[in-house]
Structures are given as structure tokens and as C-alpha cells.
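[09:14] KT: can someone run the structure on this one? pasting the chain below
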Amino acid sequence: MKSFKRAAAAGAAALCLSGAQAQTLLEQAAEHRFQLDFHVNDAALAKMLPAGWEAVIAAQGPAKDANLRMIFIDRMAIMGADGKPASPPTARLVYLAIPVKQTAGAAVGQMIIHGITENAADAPGAFGVYQPASAAKMSRSSSASQGVVTGAEDWEFAAAGGERMEVHVEYERGPAVKGGAEVKFFQPADAAKYLLFKTEQAIDIMRNPTTNPPDHVRKFSYKAGGGKIAALFDGTEKVVSWDSFPWYVRAVSAP
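[09:31] RB: done, C-alpha cells below
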């Protein structure tokens, strides 16, 4: 996200402009993602949000009860607004995002409250919350036999402050559903500012106790906590959805 960081810094004033004005494209990327939806301690989560904002918790559907998303991202092709490869053109990271709304207003979207990135130049990033990784590893593999595709993913990120997010998962790939949206991502330190993420994606919900799709998760384990995120992962957290995004195309713009 180095090009994203430079463009966002150069256009910082644009973040404060009215959404009625033309959007300024900052970055484009093609990604693979693996996402875990959690329900974590509500009081601990509330302390991570700025005054006047609260978590949005769905009462039904695949995101039921989720108040936090842990998203592991393989940024396979990063391009600037001009469509040319960024430097570097690939990157790996993990971040924590909260679906949010204004307590006494109409604004809704998401807020990235923490992240660990293998590229030190991406920290603290446009949202001011990324830490450079002291350890960053990713392994993804897949195989096919008689029409059945199986896969395995290992992600490991750690930061110098003790923060750690890891996942190991083995699965059978299921049919993916196409989706997409345009979502505002607000800055935790100044929620009057935001960036727009416009996405097209394919999502494979591999396990979900609410919508109860065929369970395609064969093996699974995770580790999370330490440092700034210790209170969120105190042993009472619960995974409520396991989601794979075999392709995820994202355009980031300033309003």
C-alpha cells in the first residue's frame, strides 16, 4: 500500500471534502482474502472506537452477531490510479475492521482499528493504525481431483509490541457468490475523514452457524492478541463466520 499511502497523504485535504464532489482514484488492487468474523467483548471493542461512534451488529444473515472482522490479505497486484504497477507491486497484511455507524448521525461504514503489514513503508498507513511486522509469513496452496478443489492457507503476522494474528485453515472450496459494494472507511483518529473502497468480489462462506451452508472447513486454528489488541482477544471471543474471497478487486478513492 505504499502508493496508496503517498497518494492519500498528497490528497489529505480531499478527505475533508463533501461526498458530492468528484472522487479521486488513489489506488487499485487485485487481492485474495481470508476473513474471520468474530464477536468479541463489546466493552473492550467500544474503547477502540472514537466518541460518537458505535459498532453495527447484524441481527440476522451471515454476519449475525459479528462485531469485528480479522482479514488476511494477499495483495497480488497493486496499481496506482494510472493503472501502472505500484512499488512494490505486491504485499501481505492483516487488519481488524469494525462495521460502524454514528451514534447520533447518519454516517455508516467501517473502521480499521489495527493492522500488521509486512511492508514497513505502509505503516502507519492512511488510517494511522498499521504496525510494521516483526514476522510476516504466508503460504497458500490448492489442488484438484475429480472436480473437488481443496486448499490450505497459513498466515502469521506479529509486531514488535506483542500483537499477533495467525490462522491455519484447510478446506474444500465451495461455490462462490459474486458481490460488491462501495463502503466508507473512516479514520479512527478523525472520523470526519474517510476513504471510499469500491469492490467487486467472489465470496465462499465456508462455515457459518447462522446461515448453515455446507461446512467445508476441514482443519482450523488461530491465535490472536497481545499489545494493543489484547483486550479484544481475552479468550471469550467467538468466531461466527469463516469466509474465503478467491478474488477481490478493490479501488480506493478520496471523496
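[09:33] KT: thanks! Residues 177 and 203 are 5 Å apart (CA to CA).
[09:34] RB: yep, looked fine to me
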